[in-house]
């Protein structure tokens, strides 16, 4: 996102000396100051009374700080930059104990340090302390640091409440404060509050910037308010606010929520026209739109465009493209992409293989599915999981390969892969479609009960259908399965009753043929 002004720079906090060679040697006072800072930085946070230890460490140096508050600022800034928020707070408390002059800059540095280290409750406590016990006037930077702390922690309610507190305290707001609050709303998925804050920015007669809009657009698309996102995108043009890569990425992501794949591609092309850099996130968002809209050819075209734009492809992007092919039943294209990952040295993960195996399942390529599961995943060092195994068993089921499905189920048990309802359903269905002995299907049903795997209506329906294809006694078994469904609180549906009736009808026909 676009940069936000540093709180340190805004407060006029002096910078620490840069590391590395110097053109001249520091004076004795400077060297002593640096040694004291190093000594403070070595103090652990686990000390029982850290403030007293810091107070003793600084010692007589406190006397030099009287009338020179910038000296204390230098030390507080050094501790803050080293992410030692607890030491910065302890030093601030030590200053108060020594009855030294403490100002807003001192508090602002420590509040900012707490926020950057995820210590938002401490940041809020210090902000309150300024107004209560210390009687230090709070300024825009004080609130900005506290709101930024809440933003980092995703505490949008507190961030918005602090905006209201600024009105009560008559502290002026700036665009940085609004940006932090809107970003907090984005993280908290509060798109309506984010949009209202955007309106408040206009009411405060502040100029919105790229960051302002980016956070609001992202908040909207994350909440599936894609039309609002695209509306804000257009508003940026009307208000002549510059769009960047993040703006376009958020707008393209919004298109995925509304199924606007052509709009996404148009936005991607517009980036070239207005000279906005495209990166893997932008292309990834566009590929995701194509995947969700079933536009696998467009997804593959984007891959070729990435090569031209010299944008590196990552695992997530490949996974989206493979998934697009899987949804379109294009198993060959999915396998080609999986092979390309090895060529361009992009790591494959369980999602890559699961999507490719699922593509093979939909293409009725059960042997290819098994090869990916046992050979491909092992070669890539990827652990098998329930999703990949379920897809492979389903591939066997669709091709009526019941023996392969049962063997695969046994292999997964041996490899400690969690057996779930989907796997077992596919295996039982494979038995039914492949014409296996009905006893095999019923044994799987019993195994599920023993292993405490949930049995669904689909599970029982497949088992009843297997009985339908059995012999003389299977009609009674089908009825018994219906009774069992009711006893274990699995609701039979029309398919359940129809399969049971067919099984009973077949037994009746066979009985008549005996006479």
TrEMBL record:
What does the UniProt keyword field contain?
Repeat
**UniProt repeat feature PPR, residue ranges:** 103-137, 139-173, 209-243, 244-278, 456-492
Name one matching Pfam family. PPR_2
For whether the record's keyword set contains Cell membrane, the answer is no
PROSITE patterns given for it? PPR
Q: Which InterPro entries does this chain map to?
A: PPR_rpt (IPR002885), TPR-like_helical_dom_sf (IPR011990)
NCBIfam families assigned: PPR (TIGR00756)
- According to UniProt, the name of this protein is Pentatricopeptide repeat-containing protein, chloroplastic
